[in-house]
Amino acid sequence: MAKKVKYFYNSSTLKYEKVELSFGKKLLRVLGYLATVSVFSVVTVTIAYNILDSPKEKKLKRDISQLSLQYDILHKRMKQLDGVVTDLQERDNNIYRVIFESEPITSDEWQTNFAGIKRYKALESSNYSSLMIEATRKLDELSKKMYVQSKSYDYLIREVRNKDKMLASVPAIQPVSNKDLTRMASGYGYRIHPIYKTRKFHAGMDFTSPTGTPIYSTGDGVVIKAEFGRGFGNEVQINHGYGYSTIYGHMSRIKAKIGHKVKRGEIIGYVGNTGASTGPHCHYEVHRNGQPVNPINFYFNDLSPAEYDKMLELSSRNNQSFD
């Protein structure tokens, strides 16, 4: 295509003359064009940089999303493990150490203390320092708790070796065969009395079962009572020593005799409905130093953790007792 030629009308010569641009004007025109292109390029790049992600940025965002997801999963697992360790601590202090008459582990001993130690300083330069420090701190706390728990179990193992006789004497099984847990009718605590219909403290647990079902001694001991009484009907009491005693009520027939030594799991009588009872069952109590305690804490020879949790749920229902 031929280059367009521009003309202008010269009023002096009264002729059309060809427009001739000077070098300066040509230079200004070129510079103006370049400036326009530069401004347009800068605007385009700025918009693209702020709105559109580069492939590298897209990959970084995917990586961050994956890291956040993995951190959330790790956080939940650490929380679950912390719950398990806390449950072990509760059992350690409130069951096992009670059995061995040992001092409970104090909260200061359980508490993680890293004061004054710059153990997380190296993590501060990380791009994900807050996540890394928080996760590391929680792992340190969990490790400390597990270490203390491990040392506690080492101590309990030594106590076991020294107290075999005591362990055989402590009530540690259910008085009625109850593997399916369907025979637990009422637990420890305030319940509605079935006869008087008033709210009354129920100092034991009721196990419903057909009349004649065997009732077992829950630990080694000596029978100190085996007779009929107004409240519990045919009743057996066993002194296990070490501050423990147990009561078994409403039997249809008593097998144990006063003064006899019995072993854990030995039959001492049979389920019945004697005394102040509204149906065949065994009323069972555990006493520690003369005071009733919740029998739910003394089935560790009988129940798995899952069965224990189910028994705990059943025993805590605010229902009516059988006596």
From TrEMBL:
The keyword Transmembrane applies. Residues 200-295 form the M23ase beta-sheet core domain. The chain crosses the membrane at residues 30-52. InterPro entries: Cell_wall_metabolism_enzyme, Dup_hybrid_motif, M23ase_b-sheet_dom. Keywords: Membrane, Transmembrane, Transmembrane helix. It comes from the Bacteria. One of its GO terms (molecular function) is metalloendopeptidase activity. PANTHER family: LIPOPROTEIN NLPD (PTHR21666:SF286), PEPTIDASE-RELATED (PTHR21666). This is Peptidase M23. It comes from Solitalea longa. The lineage of its organism: Bacteria, Pseudomonadati, Bacteroidota, Sphingobacteriia, Sphingobacteriales.
